[in-house]
Design a protein that fits this description.
The chain has five helices and eight strands. It is α+β, with helices and mostly antiparallel strands. The strands form two sheets. Strands 1-3-4-7 form a four-stranded antiparallel beta sheet, with no helix packed on it. It has a four-stranded mixed beta sheet with strand order 2-8-5-6, with no helix packed on it. Strand 5 and strand 6 (176-184) form a beta hairpin.
Length: 213
């Protein structure tokens, strides 16, 4: 009996998990599931949470969550099952772990959202066309961390025909990261909303906007 236990003790953690015995490395995460905790700790060691200019901690949280999910998926992918019952139990453990991971990061995301609703974003523009412009973040879905960019623009001269309105996402150096556009009849003043999310490639370095017609 003693010999059998000693053999089990030296099995890899993933193999132990596959036969219903969990042995975790341990770490600072506290998702309540040690396999998930290990995945989170590994992701935290690779992806540092930092403040982005517009979306705060959200972009790096999304990146870290994605990394943790990938690590967790690889862990479960290594588990070998020898029967349908084992495969069913493993699938349930996997679903439970994914839900635990989602719940852990959802709480972090909701905390990071605080203070972003109504945040002002710097807007640059061609002073020959535009008299004033401002843009604010409007939270539209707290669970998914979806926002709208709300533009409030006054023109120096009314435009009473349809034109292409463009807004450029720029970083702190003025480098263009992404472009959005819409065809509108702006008149002398207009207020428009367009969707924006914090999980895009440019979200981390997005600093301000530039608008033009």
């Amino acid at each position: 009996m003693r010999k059998k236990f000693k053999t089990l003790a030296y099995l890899p953690a993933i193999a132990l998990f596959g036969i219903g015995i969990i042995r975790c490395v341990g770490g600072g995460a506290s998702a309540g599931n040690c396999v998930v905790d290990d995945a989170i700790s590994a992701a935290e060691s690779q992806i540092t949470i930092i403040e982005s200019p517009v979306f705060g901690k959200l972009p790096s949280l999304f990146e870290q969550k994605l990394k943790a999910g990938t690590i967790l998926s690889k862990q479960f992918g290594k588990i070998k099952t020898e029967s349908m019952d084992e495969a069913t139990r493993n699938q349930q453990r996997r679903e439970d772990a994914v839900q635990t991971l989602d719940d852990y990061y959802q709480k972090k995301i909701e905390e990071a959202i605080e203070g972003l609703d109504g945040k002002n974003i710097k807007v640059e523009f061609d002073e020959k066309q535009v008299a004033s412009a401002k843009c604010t973040l409007k939270l539209t879905d707290s669970e998914r961390a979806y926002f709208n960019l709300v533009f409030d623009v006054k023109l120096k001269q009314p435009i009473d025909k349809e034109v292409e309105f463009k807004w450029e996402y720029r970083d702190a150096t003025g480098t263009r990261l992404q472009v959005g556009s819409d065809y509108i009849i702006p008149g002398a003043k207009f207020v428009k909303e367009y969707m924006a999310t914090a999980d895009r490639d440019y979200s981390m370095t997005f600093d301000h906007l530039y608008i033009k017609f």
